[in-house]
Amino acid sequence: MSGAPTAAMRDYLLGLQQRITSAITEIDGQSFVSDAWEKAPGEPLQGNGVTQILEGGAVFERAGCGFSHVQGPRLPPSATQHRPELAGAPFEALGVSLVFHPRNPYVPTVHMNVRQITALTPGGGAPVSWFGGGMDLTPYYGFEEDAQHFHRTCAAALAPFGADKYPRFKAWCDDYFFLKHRNEARGIGGIFYDDLSELGFEGGLALTQAVGDAFLHAYLPLVQRRRDTPYGERERQFQLYRRGRYVEFNLVWDRGTHFGLQSGGRSESILLSMPPLVRWAYQEQPAEGTPEHRLTSEFLPRRDWL
């Protein structure tokens, strides 16, 4: 199924992974461990990838950035819920996905993903490709200027592709990264899109690359701004508590996690988004008037950040 367009996307993604991990290494001072992997013959999912992981760094407690390129005999249910005509179709998927969990509670956690999926339509039809991706920010303590910078960078990346893209993908992100069982947002959002084919292959590829290229511009200034903010045990415990919400979303609601596990993907790489430490507390809620309560009352509710 692979061809020149897929090869171009693969080269772009591997370069993007290297650019991002090099920038994070420069900030943290610790290098990523690179784990190249390949699916064994005979497994339902075939392919390869590179998982890069940094653990126990000075700035990042855990930072994972993974590239994968896999082929499978049947699209999993999580990929065909909006494309029922492709149920059971063979597919090829490649992408880069990252989650960075900072050590300092004043530095927000961030997620970014860009991907391409190609499927063969039943009956020997032409291959069908679509794109997905986005980035979203999960702060533990809210700062207006950080949220505005992140969203403005996302909006600028999408501007060449139509004035409708940022408002639409921002709303999609707010809807998607939402813990329905708690009626609570995971963070302050960003942009998210899936099943994107309306721009054609070249347009979808260009938009997806623009999103990937914007990531470091959106996130690194926030890290530099907050990394040395003093904090104590109270802030640390609140960070661990809010990380619990992150874990809940990824395991219960995230389509990417479900896609990887349902298709027989490499579980260690799929779950690199998990934070190293986390806590849950029964019915714990921040007290009114505290910075912790301000996060839940002013930053997590949906709002316009531009």
Please provide a written account of the structure:
The protein is globular and about 60 Å long. It has one domain (4-277): Coproporphyrinogen III oxidase, aerobic (oxygen-dependent coproporphyrinogen oxidase). It is built from nine helices and nine strands. The protein is an alpha+beta fold. Strands 1-2-3-4-5-6-9 form a seven-stranded antiparallel sheet. A two-stranded antiparallel sheet has the order 7-8. A hairpin with a 6-residue loop joins strand 4 (91-102) and strand 5. Pfam families: Coprogen_oxidas. One of its GO terms (cellular component) is cytoplasm. Involved in the heme biosynthesis. Catalyzes the aerobic oxidative decarboxylation of propionate groups of rings A and B of coproporphyrinogen-III to yield the vinyl groups in protoporphyrinogen-IX. The active site is at residue 111.
- The overall strand count is 9
Total DSSP helices: 9
Low-confidence stretches: none
Q: What pattern of helices and strands is seen along the backbone? A: HEEEHEEEHHEEEHHHHH
Number of domains: 1
Biggest beta sheet summary: 7 strands, antiparallel
The CATH topology, please? Answer: oxygen-dependent coproporphyrinogen oxidase
Distance between the termini: 41 Å
Beta percentage is: 25-35%
| Mean residue pLDDT | 90
Largest sheet: spatial strand order: 1-2-3-4-5-6-9
Report the top-level CATH class: Alpha Beta
Structural class: alpha+beta
What is the rounded Rg?
19 Å
The CATH architecture can be named as 3-Layer(aba) Sandwich
Binding site for a divalent metal cation: 101, 111, 151, 181
Function: Involved in the heme biosynthesis. Catalyzes the aerobic oxidative decarboxylation of propionate groups of rings A and B of coproporphyrinogen-III to yield the vinyl groups in protoporphyrinogen-IX.
Protein name: Oxygen-dependent coproporphyrinogen-III oxidase
EC number: 1.3.3.3
